[in-house]
Amino acid sequence: MSFFEKIFGKNQENQLQTEEAPVVLEEVPNEWGSFSTLIDDQVASIRLNLALAQAAPYAQYSYAMRLKIALLDVESETKFPTNDEFLKLNTIEDELSEALFNISGIYVGTVITDGHIEYYYYLRDKQSHVAAISRVMKEFPDYQYSSATLVDPEWNQYFEFLYPNEYEYQTILNQRIWYKLEKSGDHHDQIREINHWICCTSEETQAELMLEVEKLAYTLVSTDKLQDSTRPYRIQISRLDDTELSHLNQNVWELVEISKKYGGKYSGWSCNVV
Question: What is the dihedral of CA 60, 66, 67, 69, to 10 degrees?
Answer without folding.
Answer: 160
